[in-house]
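@channel anyone free to eyeball this complex?
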Amino acid sequence: MTTAIWLLKTEPDAFSLEELAARGDAGEPWNGIRNYQARNFLRQMSVGDSVLVYHSACKVPGVVGEAVVIRSAYPDPDALEPNSPYFDAKSTPEANRWSVVDVRYVRHFRRTVTLQEIKKDERLAGMALLKQSRLSVSPVTEKEYRVLSSLSD
DNA sequence: GCCAACGTTGGC
DNA sequence: GCCAACGTTGGC
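replying in thread with the prediction:
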């Protein structure tokens, strides 16, 4: 099957692309997704899918680089952990509502493609990121990916 | 820090 | 099943 491309948002104050880079080959579980639409996209991800990493709620929001899916969706253990900020009282080991995928760092873009630039570029006008600004996991088309990559050089 | 957008919850 | 109240996201 062909590999898909996704955009994942993260607040760099909480977890940045730099921190993902520091995890090396082990990668990191992309946890804490607590929105059904975002979760459903997580569940569609396959090993090898590309991930664009977007920094939100920061000085210059935008796409900062790239990662890759190294483990497809599995139940999010944090949902069952009472001390976790992501604890969900309605989830049980038998019926965990939430999923997580593991991702590994690939590269930083030479330069950040800012939200401002994305909004200005009519080739990116269809991006799910713009249509649903609060969605933290969204699909990216091949064409959008090519435009974003070229803007990052 | 403000506030618009929008998802979730819960009473009825 | 509707919808008001509430909470969260995230740009600015």
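from a first look: Helices of chain A lie at 17-23, 36-43, 115-120, 128-131, 142-151.
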